[in-house]
Design brief:
The structure is a homodimer. By secondary structure, the first copy, chain A, is of the alpha/beta class. Chain A has 2 domains: 70 residues, Ribosomal protein L30/S12 (60s Ribosomal Protein L30, Chain: A, 2-Layer Sandwich); 138 residues, 3-Layer(aba) Sandwich (Alpha/beta knot), CATH 3.40.1280. At the A-B interface, helix 5 and helix 8 of A face helix 5 and helix 8 of B.
Chain lengths: 226, 226
């Protein structure tokens, strides 16, 4: 039973709020019973697992949390990466918001067989916020680096055919850019597509919603075509 | 030029972080130039509008922010509500997270002609987080209370036909429940539908993602038939 905030495991958990410590220790944190269960279900062994009140004073665990979530369980894990590939996957560029990165990881897990590939400028997918937003999909479908060999479809707000008009012959990679700047130049897209938004409606969706809609549309059509 | 944190306008802005003050004063805050512009574009006159550094010391404005966003503009507005209705709208129940409420308001603005109706247990749509998540759609398409006369389709994780199988004769209301508990009993749904998720994938999406996918599917099909 841990009763001191100077405990080494709690110190490690607190350090892992910071990206430089996640990189140095090659570890990350999942906060909350749901995430710890998702890790176990996906076959990940924790390096550290603390449950309150069994292992640790609940207030000390809450204080170690990076999310201020009052989590009753915190697990520490070693990052893993998927290989790029799949019949449908998602490639993100300059997505700075960790919640958007985590949500995209959830959506890829829901709608396609490939991982989320993280291009330059993306938030750390193993940050506490991204892990939480993934709702555990970070364990079932870890993100990837590198680039898949596939037809490259760039999703932009305003140009190209609508998603429903895109042919879904696999393999496909959906390219999506950051919150403000959109896709960087030089991505070698084979096609540019858009989500049809109502006239008089907003000019764009946020990145996570756009990714979710696009993977739903392409993934369900691809599944229907067999 | 405001140079004191005791300024009455700054005091009001700080108070409006709290729901009880928003209710008592019947006012809410939009933080950031994008949101202030979205309000103006939708024809909303601010009760207070402070821009840094023109009107106020930037540090004082940042300190008044409820989001810690370092906003360079903060506007204060009087809430408005839409009437329930439209050929497609969304009704939320027990959606506690203000980010999910705001994102749903954005998605309704993007994909349907009706507002988001807020049932019991939903987060305040005029909280700073919800307003930000709406990306300004709170001004273009304010939420509604009450109930629309329409065919009622309940979106649940696991039962019913898929969204693509639903007939889209208007008017339709999509019903969606909270993060944990799903839809409460007694909602008088005419039909139960689900979003098809991959085998081996997650059991559910978060509320904002589910709302966005469902409104996209139903809204674009309704537009194509209409």
């Amino acid at each position: 039973m841990i009763r001191s905030r100077d405990n080494e495991q709690l110190k490690t958990i607190r350090k892992l709020r910071q990206k430089r410590w996640r990189e140095r220790l090659d570890l990350f944190v999942a906060e909350g019973e749901d995430l710890v269960e998702a890790a176990a279900a996906a076959g990940w062994e924790p390096e550290i697992l603390l449950r309150a009140p069994a292992d640790v004073d609940p207030e000390l665990l809450a204080e170690a949390s990076g999310l201020g979530s009052g989590a009753r369980a915190i697990g520490v894990y070693r990052p893993r990466w998927s290989a790029a590939g799949g019949s449908l996957s998602l490639e993100l560029h300059d997505v700075h918001d960790p919640g958007n990165v985590g949500t995209a990881i959830r959506s890829a897990h829901a709608f396609c067989d490939g991982p989320v590939m993280l291009g330059p400028g993306c938030a750390d997918p193993f940050s506490p916020k991204a892990v939480r937003a993934s709702m555990g999909s970070i364990f079932a479908r870890p993100p990837a680096r590198g680039r898949a060999r596939a037809r490259r479809i760039a999703l932009v707000p305003y140009a190209g055919r609508t998603l429903a008009e895109v042919a879904v012959e696999p393999p496909l990679v959906l390219l999506l850019g950051g919150e403000r700047r959109g896709l960087p130049a030089g991505l070698d897209a084979d096609e540019v597509v858009r989500i049809p938004l109502r006239e008089g409606g907003p000019e764009s969706l946020n990145v996570a919603m756009a990714a979710t809609v696009a993977l739903y549309e392409l993934g369900t059509r691809m599944a229907a075509h067999g």
